[in-house]
Amino acid sequence: MPSESADSVDSAGSTDSAEPADSAAQADSVDSVVADLHAHTTVSDGTLTLDEVPAAAREAGVDWVAVTDHDRIHPELDAPVVERDGVRVVRGIELRVDAGFERLDLLGYGVEHTDALDAEVERLQRDRRERGAAILDAVEDRLGVDLDVAPREGLGRPHIARAIEESDAPYDYAGAFDELIGNDGPCYVAREVTPLDDGLDLLADACALVGLAHPFRYERVDEALGVARDRDAIGAIERFYPYGRAVDDERIDRVAAEAGLLRTGGTDAHERTLGVAGLTESAFEAVRERLPEPVPVRSSSVTAPDEQD
Q: Is the pLDDT of residue 12 over 60?
């Protein structure tokens, strides 16, 4: 996939992140998924609010959910792991990094706030606001429409594509990317990402566990797997993931075994369904040992979903 496409169609819940490929993508056995360790909320490009996550988890039969918003730590999660309405919610992050050969996504689980990571997140979110404003201006000038989207933290191209689809412009969501804001589009503006070494240092200092996300979504799979295998800061690799196509899961298993990596997994949920992929109880045991104990919080009332990343 193009180096930035996960900020566009893929991160909005494309076929790759919405449909299970096969039974191996969902779990390592016929047992049900109990831990979905890759989900997005409305503070990035998901459609679930944090208050709605427990109900979605219970509907899916999931006990643990990692909230891994793009380049952002959810501001309403007050501890690395909390228990909300009977569901354990892991405070996480999905951090885009520049590995030189390609941009990769790192998943941090059980995040503790550090000054360095908070500063980098603030820098990235400031860039998202500025980049979003530039894309909005370019689209509105080109199409002569008012998209009624305000630049803000968490803003990404999926929000702008949805706004284009809902406007009077003659483009649907996919067409907005294909014709306007995709990587080669006339309204495209690149965004800043964190260098790989810096990202690894930041997450290693702040997280209970760091993993490489969805290794078969990169154009250069060999190099991406090499990063997971060779970098000491990485302790896990995402194995159970709904690619929507056949992938070589056994290859991930071999890399994990050779490098001593834990295997994680999750739906990469951008819509409202959890448990499409993730870890069974037995597969989750080793990951669970790396996570802090949950801190109980009081129940919260359910609110309507915001706009997304």
A: no
CA–CA separation, 79 and 75 (whole Å): 10
SS3 state at 66: strand
Using alpha carbons only, what angle is made at residue 72 by residues 14 and 38, rounded to the nearest 5 degrees? 45
Residues 74 and 50 sit within 8 Å (Cβ to Cβ): yes
DSSP state of 269: B
Structure-token match 């801190």, residue found: 295
Sorted by sequence, the CB contacts under 8 Å of residue 116 that are 6+ apart come out as 201, 202, 205, 206
Backbone angles phi, psi at 103, to 5 degrees: -90, 130
Is pLDDT above 80 for 20? no
C-beta separation of 280 from 29 below 8 A = yes
Q: Where are the beta strands (DSSP E) in the chain?
A: 33-39, 64-67, 81-84, 87-98, 103-109, 194-195, 209-212, 236-240, 262-265, 279-280, 295-296
d(CA 266, CA 159): 23
154-199 pLDDT, tens digit per residue, is 788 888 998 999 999 999 999 999 999 998 999 999 989 999 999 9
Position 1 scores a pLDDT of 36
pLDDT, residue 308, reads 35
Read off the pTM.
0.84
Q: What Rg do the C-alpha atoms of the chain give, in angstroms?
A: 18
